[in-house]
Amino acid sequence: MFSSLRSRLWLSYALVIVTALSIVALILFFYLLRNPLLYRQTIQQLKAVQTVIAKRDETQPIENVAQRAAQNFDVRILLFSRDRQLLLDTSAGKASALPFPQKRLLSQLPIMRDESGAAWLYALERLPDKTFLVVASPRPRISIVNLFTDDLLPAIIQSGLLALLLSLGLAFIFARWIADPLQKIIAAARAMPDAEIHPVPPQGPHEVQELARVFNSMTERVRASQQSQRDFVANVSHELKTPLTSIQGFAQAILDGTADSESSRQQAAQIIYDESARMHRMALDLLDLAKLDAGTAEITMSAVQMGALLNTVAEKFAPQSQKAGVQIQVEVEPNLPKLTADGDRLAQVFTNLVDNALKFTPSGGTITLRAILDLSGNPAGKQANFGVMLISVIDTGAGISPEAQLHIFERFYQSDPARKGGKKHGAGLGLAIAREIIRAHGGRIGVRSRLGEGTTFEVRIPIKHGNK
Question: What pLDDT is recorded for position 423?
Answer without folding.
Answer: 40
